What we know:
The chain has 451 residues and is an alpha+beta fold.
Amino acid sequence: MGKMKHFKGQTLGILCCLLLYFGITAMAAPAVEGNTDVTSVTDGTVSADYVVTNDTAMEHVSLTLSYDKEVLTYLSGSGGDNFSGNGGNGAVQLSSSPNDTTASFSVRFRGKEDTDTKIEITSCVITVDGKEIDVLNQDGSVPSDEEAVEGDEDDEERASFVIDERTFYVRRPDDIEGFDSVHLDIQGIDSRALKHQNLDIYVVRLRSDNGSYRDDFVYNPDTGNVIPFVQMESGKDDVIFIEPVEGGYTPTRYSYVDMPWGPKYTIPAYKHVIIDGVDEIFDDTNRYLVYGINQDGEKAWYSYDYDKECLQAFDDMAYQGEQNYILDLEESVEGMRAESANLLKRYDTNMGRRLMIILALIIIIVILLNAVVLLYLRMRKMQFPESEEEEIAEELETTTANRRRKKASAYITGNLEENETDFQEPEKEEEEDDIELEIIDLDDLGEEDEK
């Protein structure tokens, strides 16, 4: 009996241990680990690796890093299935679809100077069973008092914006150098914002509905639009990206595009295009034209190199002069093409007319030839009877001539006296066929003369 109780006690202990173990495993929170402290070497390569883990398979993983752009330059990223990554301007966005409990990422930077620097994990969101989970808020981190207070407020009472099909709510902004905190009417709701001390620029802090993204945006009170807050140096100017003036001046041969910025954001920009007939073909460089305002309140276009994270003032005068020269050449070429097309059209028209005239003349000549041939044949048919009459006349003449010859060949024999000829021309009679020759006896004629 004692043994039975002891066996039951051992079994119960084992079951409790198993339940405790599996319970802890089921409640294990997702986590992200990786390099945060790195050493930069001038023109050298700096690598950083990160691992995201969860107790169940993750359908999608999105990781956002921030780095000091004055020390490092983003080169490339890699990791997992369906990987995508981009970086620049101090931020890197990496994502993959591992369908596994582990997702690994690797990032490479190029150093600008010899120093130690930090790479911060600013966001890590995983998708499990169709639900997004913010890893940074699930691993035991506690939000600040300010965020906790604001979290208790109803988001429906806040101004909101839809970005990449996700709703972002206006939150209390963090301090930014050169800006003062103010109250601003946004969408009819009194909201906290930041206003530049010298410029008419407003910045609001937006937080996504699931808390995964918290970023600053430039708010345009005239249009009610927001764009990511970007402040960069261009030479001696401190430039803030702003929304281009609607209907304002845009350099020739530039078309509007949404320049990617961060994992979900875009900045309105323009990209150079090549005109191919009526189609616009974007150039294959990563250079964009963005609109900005400097510390003196001067608004202008700036050329931004996305790969090199370099911003420089756009020389519109030189560019427009070049474009005017190109346009003049194109207009000249178009004029020559139009003139050539006109000449070709005139040539085709004239040749068509000439061919019609030649064809008409050929038809007329053929008709005339047929008429001449028909007339000739008809005249020949009309001359056939005359020929028969001539033949009959010739035969009659021939017959008469023969008869005359026969008459002339008939000789009269006898004695001829002086001044008499042997022949006498016979007298013509109406009917030559009835002429009878009489034989005269010369002896009888002589006797009669004597008598």
